[in-house]
Amino acid sequence: MEAPKELRYSQEHEWVLVEEDNLATIGITDYAQDQLGDVVFVELPESDTQLTQDEPFGVVESVKAVSDIYAPVSGTVKEANTELLNTPETINEDPYGDAWLVQVEMNAPEELDALMTAEEYERFVEEEQESADE
Amino acid sequence: MTAKRTPLYQVHRSLGARMIEFGGWQMPVQYAGILAEHRAVRTQGGLFDLSHMGEVEIAGPRAYEVCQELFVTDIARIQTVQAQYSVMCFADGGIVDDVIIYRLAEERYLVCVNAANRTTDYEWMVEYNRDRAEVIDRSDEYALIALQGPQAQTVLSRLTPHDLSAIRRYWAVQGEVAGVPTLLARTGYTGEDGFELFVPAERAEHIWQACGEAGRTANLVPVGLGARDTLRLEAGYLLYGNDIDARTTPLEAGLQRLVHFEAGPFVGSEALRKQQANGIEKQLVGIKMEGAGIPRQGYTIWSGQESQRQVGMVTSGTQSPMLGVGIALGYVSPSCADSGTPLAIAIRNRRIPATVVKPPFYRRSKSK
């Protein structure tokens, strides 16, 4: 499993990349896409939608399952990656790159403090896998 | 209760399969990925471990009589060694299980049953047998390996002296594969040509590896239950527990062709005759999405996008890997069951347009 150092991670397996001006790009992690399997459908919010931290804002469907995507931070959607609607498989192929889901203008950047670093996320996933194996 | 392991469990682990529990068994849900496995079966070939399925033998001079009472189908029409898809019903017409009956010999039938129903089926058969025939649960003796796809015959022909082209669909031979006594049946649950091999459980790994070796040049891949489900749904095959169960009858499920009243009476025939006379209240149909969205089990079906009239429920659904659209099976009011009827499926908080179609959703090309 890959977890780039520059990102922050949520317990629901979303990643956040923070850029200038409170802009945050959000996607799902490599671990999440691997657990889902082949992604065949994506539903994303429209621009100007208000996201609330820990609330679902979109849906990813694999062949077998429907999964909500939870907002790792609160804010206003500036842009959604509508390319994914036609090529949902990008989520499996490039979860940290071309498969970003939305770009959000954060209204509470301090929420980032509740997210995990790459190292913490890797440990979190290991623990989750161990408990799944029991 | 811990889930059981098939004789191929270690093989699946070493192939890196993701395992899930299904019908009380630990089974591979996927190896390389559901879509890749699905496409491999449609274009080349796939190898499936179906050893979780149960096998019950019904034998003896009165085996025919017992089978005729247990199953809705005319048993006399099944020749040696022919296979017949059928169902067992409860007295009220609800379905106990769907099965394939193989007539191994004049007075010997092998009934392949669903994994989750193995015990209930066996007990049901024993109860109705009333000591007339021998009813033996052979499930632990057999492993079941399926080889499915356009390359199936080519691959299997490398492992057996039999002329496979002489085995017609839904026929079988008792022979040998890789030197091991095998019931080779030209049956399957994928919509492709292919074979199901009933082999001694202790030789399962040998046969699996032999098939893998023989299939290497044909790009034969192992296929898990994930793709098995999308393949069967594209082919329009029903899944017990989803599309049929004790609360559905063969008439409602569109299985009239299997029901031969004149051969009966069988368990449930009286109830089914009555239902046929009175008419059914729900009918299984194929549904194809006209808008973006994937129908799933339990989603409600409506008579239109704006309609307040719920007309049914989805029992199986997926995104068809070959067609790239959502497909489903579900029960609707008979007034909405004609092909071409526009419907809508509630997906989250939207109604997505859909149309009734006659399965199969995907048909293999017959050109060879």
Structure description:
The complex is a heterodimer of chains A (134) and B (368). With 134 residues, chain A is of the alpha+beta class. Helices cover 23% and strands 32% of the residues of chain A. Chain A contains 4 helices and 9 strands; from the N terminus they run βββαβββββααβα. Chain A is globular and about 40 Å long. Chain B is α+β, with helices and mostly antiparallel strands and 368 residues long. Chain B is 20% helix and 33% strand. Chain B is built from 8 helices and 20 strands. In chain B, the strands form 4 sheets. In chain B, strands 11-12-13-10-4-14 form a 6-stranded mixed β-sheet. A 6-stranded antiparallel β-barrel of chain B has the order 15-18-17-16-19-20. The longest helix of chain B has 12 residues, at 118-129. The N and C termini of chain B lie far apart (47 Å). Classes of the chains: A alpha+beta (134), B alpha+beta (368). Chains A and B meet through β4 and β6 of A and α2 and α7 of B.
Specify the structural class of chain B.
alpha+beta
SSE order of chain A, one letter for each helix or strand? EEEHEEEEEHHEH
User: How many H/I helical runs of chain B?
Assistant: 8
| Rg of chain A | 14 Å
Total number of strands of chain A: 9
End-to-end CA span of chain A:
20 Å
Rounded to the nearest angstrom, the distance between the terminal CA atoms of chain B is 47 Å
Could you give a quick summary of the protein structure above?
The complex is a heterodimer of chains A (about 130) and B (about 375). With about 130 residues, chain A is of the alpha+beta class. Chain A has helices at about 30-35, 85, 90-95, 120-134, and strands spanning about 10, 15-20, 25-30, 40-45, 50, 55-60, 65-70, 75-80, 100-105.
Main attributes?
heterodimer, A: 134 residues, alpha+beta, six-stranded antiparallel β-sheet, three-stranded antiparallel β-sheet, 4 helices, 32% strand, globular, B: 368 residues, six-stranded mixed β-sheet, 8 helices
How are the SSEs ordered, and which strands pair?
The complex is a heterodimer of chains A (134) and B (368).
Chain A (H helix, E strand, L loop, with lengths): L7 E2 L4 E5 L4 E6 L1 H7 L2 E5 L6 E2 L4 E7 L3 E5 L4 E6 L2 H4 L3 H4 L8 E5 L11 H16 L1
Antiparallel strand pairs in A: 1-2, 2-3, 3-9, 4-6, 5-8, 6-7, 8-9
Chain B lengths: L3 E2 L3 H6 L3 E5 L2 E6 L3 H10 L2 E4 L4 E6 L3 H8 L12 E7 L5 E11 L2 E6 L4 H12 L4 E4 L4 E7 L3 H6 L14 E6 L2 E6 L8 E7 L3 H11 L6 E2 L2 H10 L34 H10 L4 E7 L10 E3 L7 E10 L6 E7 L9 E6 L2 E8 L11
Parallel strand pairs in B: 1-3, 4-14
Antiparallel strand pairs in B: 2-3, 4-10, 5-8, 5-9, 6-7, 7-8, 10-13, 11-12, 12-13, 15-18, 15-20, 16-17, 16-19, 17-18, 19-20
